[in-house]
Design brief:
The complex is a heterodimer. By secondary structure, chain A is mainly alpha-helical. Helix content of chain A is 72%, strand content 0%. Chain A has ten helices and no strands. In chain A, helix 1 runs antiparallel to helix 2 and helix 2 runs antiparallel to helix 3. The termini of chain A are far apart. In chain B, helix 1 runs antiparallel to helix 4 and helix 13 packs antiparallel against helix 15. The chains are: A mainly alpha, B mainly alpha. At the A-B interface, helix 7 and helix 8 of A face helix 4 and helix 5 of B.
């Protein structure tokens, strides 16, 4: 066994262990931390396949941003995990069936002749950095969709702000000086409203 | 590595760039607008659209031009559709203005900015020559629309509609992407013209291709809103604020037509026999379910939603009959009839929803059919306009809707699908019932509210022009028909 295969099996073992812990850990924080471990190991496997850009992106995006947010949510919401776990055994047969079907389908897809890549095609020649290649493509051939994608993100941002922002909230405090000088007519207003038809 | 970089020809995409820059500028300028009617924002938005149209005119060469490594195509079809798009959005925003001023949560500069970004998304779709650009354009459009539907955020119905639209829209995008990935797997390219070449030269695995095609047609059918992917239409039309319904029911139809043309006709024309049989099923089902379900509606927005489903089904007939058994003699005729149909539908739909906006006021939506009782006594002129729009939608002769149906039927008969033409006519006859019911309600029922309609002068003039256009273009349908035919002749 050469060193690459050994590293692959080592990382895979950690990945499988971490993924299992994600679904078996009782403490949601432990589950989230194991998911981070799973992402790291997955990044390692990608690096082994010479896809260093994907490895870096996975760790930066998922570990750096998504999982941190996720941890915040888990810590802020008081989720009662034991309550969620009720009925685990009831759902197990159906879940297991769906899981088996998915494994079989994946096997069929990966085993079919349309999705085979010769090992020689998968090798990246020496001296080629795929981060550089992706960067060059992104700013030359794919510059148009790349710029548009930035506008899509901007629209997402505008939409989120429009739908949630309700103007600045001023803190409420009492001013004793004004309270002393208040008059009855300051407290009550008579409004004239137009009649609205429903 | 960077030695062979060539700056792409930016000229064909000038309107897109102008619109994007202006939308960003308006977003910033709106922060300084103090006026609660947002006159500056509104005027700038409309000027942007007019500017886009001017740039489109100035840069149009009439030739098929590819740029951005063949991801962007500019041809006469794109130019014509984009010009209609600017006109439609311009009209839509004019009609919507009074409505959104009356409704506080929507009365924001972002409403106009989102409308502009949606327009940008549609322009990208119309000019797309690459799966990635089609998808990004579609997402830009959809994302802006989801936000616009939800913008009246204190309304439960609107939020529900936005949620449904979002979830189902994401599902449809998934279908479309899955189909695209299959076709990529079979042909090895994402570029539409290159796919057409690969398919023409043969040697492509047919099973994977047809498998992908099914998903592709499913995704497109969702975006067009045809049966069985129509579930979202009535709920979204009903739940969305009427001004947004007006927007959804008009401009995106032009873009959806464009991507159907790009994907199916430009890209997969060698597979025509396969996708035509799928489209025939979608089309017949849409005409049946759309027209029958519309009869049962009491809410005008829902009724028009089902009517939109049936109209899109009818339009598909034009696309179905382009190539029959490898014979492309009637292709130009068929595709231009479909294009004419879409343009005519957009014009009629804009007018009808525009009338609903004209009737609505603060706290009153005018979306039930009963709200139109005795409209003739309240305002004979606007009742007349609505009458023309309804007659045109029903396909009564000498309105534009009649010639739209007529030219599609002509193409269907020429292609030899006699039974399809008969089915289409039968369902159109059934459809006439619910359009005429509205006319009956307007002319023969007693009004509950005698007060005459009030609306600002510019909206009155615009809606009158819209109604008269439906009538006049019905007398001179050749104006638009020949434009469509010429544009497609130079583009296909």
């Amino acid at each position: 066994m050469d060193i690459q295969t050994a590293v692959f099996y080592f990382l895979s073992a950690i990945l499988i262990f971490a993924s299992l812990r994600v679904i078996t850990a009782r403490n949601p924080i432990h589950a989230a931390l194991h998911l981070i471990l799973a992402f790291f190991t997955c990044g390692g496997i990608w690096a082994l396949l010479q896809a260093e850009f994907l490895a870096i992106a996975l760790i930066l995006v998922y570990v750096g941003a998504v999982m941190v947010l996720f941890l915040f949510v888990v810590m802020m919401l008081d989720i009662n995990i034991d309550k969620i776990r009720q009925g685990f055994w009831n759902y197990l047969p159906l879940g297991a069936l769906v899981g088996m079907l998915m494994v079989m389908e994946m096997g069929l897809v990966l085993g079919s002749k349309y999705f085979q890549v010769a090992a020689a095609d998968a090798m990246v020649p020496a001296g080629v950095s795929n981060t550089k290649e992706i960067g060059a493509l992104m700013f030359s051939e794919y510059v148009y969709p790349f710029e548009l994608a930035s506008i899509v993100l901007l629209v997402g941002m505008i939409a989120a702000i429009v739908l949630t922002y309700r103007g600045p909230k001023k803190s409420k405090y009492t001013n004793p000086n004004q309270q002393v000088f208040v008059k009855a007519k300051d407290r009550m207003r008579v409004l004239q409203m137009p009649v609205e038809k429903d | 590595m960077f030695d062979n970089f060539v700056v792409p020809n930016l000229l064909p995409a000038a309107p897109e760039m102008f619109l994007a820059v202006m939308a960003l500028a308006i977003l910033m300028i709106d922060l300084t607008v103090k006026d609660s009617r947002r006159t500056v924002t509104f005027a700038l938005t409309q000027l942007t659209l007019i500017g886009c149209a001017a740039i489109q005119f100035a840069t149009s060469t009439g030739e098929i031009t590819y740029t951005f490594s063949n991801m962007f195509v500019d041809d006469l079809m794109a130019d014509l559709l984009k010009l209609f798009l600017y006109m439609t959005v311009l009209m839509v925003l004019f009609y919507s203005r009074g409505y959104i001023i009356d409704r506080e949560p929507m009365n924001k500069g972002e409403y106009y900015v989102l409308a502009l970004f949606a327009t940008l998304g549609m322009m990208v779709m119309i000019s797309a020559n690459h799966f990635v650009t089609i998808y990004i354009g579609l997402e830009l459009l959809s994302l802006s629309l989801y936000a616009m539907v939800a913008m009246n955020r204190d309304s439960v119905v609107s939020s529900e509609a936005a949620m449904k639209y979002f979830v189902l829209g994401a599902l449809a995008s998934g279908l479309l992407l899955y189909g695209m990935s299959m076709i990529y797997g079979a042909t090895g390219t994402l570029e539409i013209t290159a796919i057409a070449e690969r398919l023409y030269s043969g040697g492509v695995n047919k099973t994977v291709l047809v498998f992908g095609l099914v998903f592709l047609v499913g995704g497109l059918a969702f975006k067009l809103g045809v049966v069985p992917f129509h579930m979202w239409i009535p709920d979204v039309y009903h739940g969305a604020p009427t001004s947004v319904t007006l927007f959804i029911s008009t401009a995106p139809k032009l873009a959806a037509f464009a991507i159907v043309m790009r994907l199916l006709v430009n890209g997969l024309i060698t597979m025509a026999a396969d996708w035509q049989s799928m489209l025939i099923i979608l089309s017949v089902l849409s005409m049946a379910i759309g027209n029958l379900a519309a009869i049962a509606q009491t809410n005008l927005k829902r009724m028009l939603a089902y009517s939109a489903i049936s109209h899109m089904g009818f339009m598909l007939l034009g696309i179905v009959t382009g190539v029959v058994g490898g014979d492309a003699r009637y292709a130009l005729n068929a595709y231009s009839s479909a294009m004419f149909y879409v343009i005519a539908y957009v014009l009629m739909s804009a007018g009808t929803f525009g009338m609903m906006l004209l009737m609505a006021r603060a706290g009153f939506e005018a979306e039930e059919i009963n709200d139109y009782k005795g409209l003739n006594k309240r305002s004979p002129w606007f009742a007349g306009i609505m009458l023309m729009l309804m007659f045109s939608m029903a396909g009564v002769p000498f309105f534009i809707g009649f010639f739209a149906k007529f030219s599609v039927l002509q193409a269907v008969v020429a292609a030899g699908y006699m039974w399809l033409a008969i089915v289409a006519v039968l369902f159109s006859l059934i459809g006439a019932f619910y359009y005429l019911r509205l006319v009956k309600v307007m002319y023969f029922d007693q009004p509950e509210d005698e007060s005459p309609l009030t609306a600002p002068m510019d909206v009155r003039i615009l809606i009158s022009a819209n109604g008269l256009a439906v009538a006049l273009l019905g007398i001179f349908p050749q104006v638009i028909m020949s434009l469509c035919a010429y544009a497609l002749l130079r583009s296909l």
